[in-house]
């Protein structure tokens, strides 16, 4: 049975697919709908559920009706191979997150190529989300904190944990850190 997080993520992925189909950036849609760019980002990430009025205002910016929105079923991406330059960037600051695939609708897993520049950090405040995640360090060193456990990982080292446990990633050492990771279900 789907939980609230699944429903929020479905709504967010549906909004993202319709926005992209209309050829709009998050910023352009936010401007048209008179909402903040971060509001669109949070909805698409499944981290917030808008009121009906707010959703209607956002959909007017595409434009699409509420009934069309809920009837819309995005096409699952059928691409099998991805060139390095085609991986969409979803990170920010000193943390690069290159996602395999542009459309996560209908997918059970998210795969990322993560690059942490020198001193990059996911933030002092640890975060959690409904998923499981794991990864392998390809190069460099990263300090991973999961709950009250903390470890510095280097090339070939790996991690796997329940993402509901608050966690944090922080680059340490003299070179950037590269990780290949997977998360299920997708969380961005």
From TrEMBL:
It comes from the Bacteria. The keyword Chaperone does not apply. CDD domains: cupin_XRE_C, HTH_XRE. It holds the Pfam family HTH_31. Gene3D superfamilies: Jelly Rolls, lambda repressor-like DNA-binding domains. Keywords: DNA-binding. The keyword DNA-binding applies. SUPFAM superfamilies: lambda repressor-like DNA-binding domains, RmlC-like cupins. This is Cupin domain-containing protein. Residues 15-69 form the HTH cro/C1-type domain.
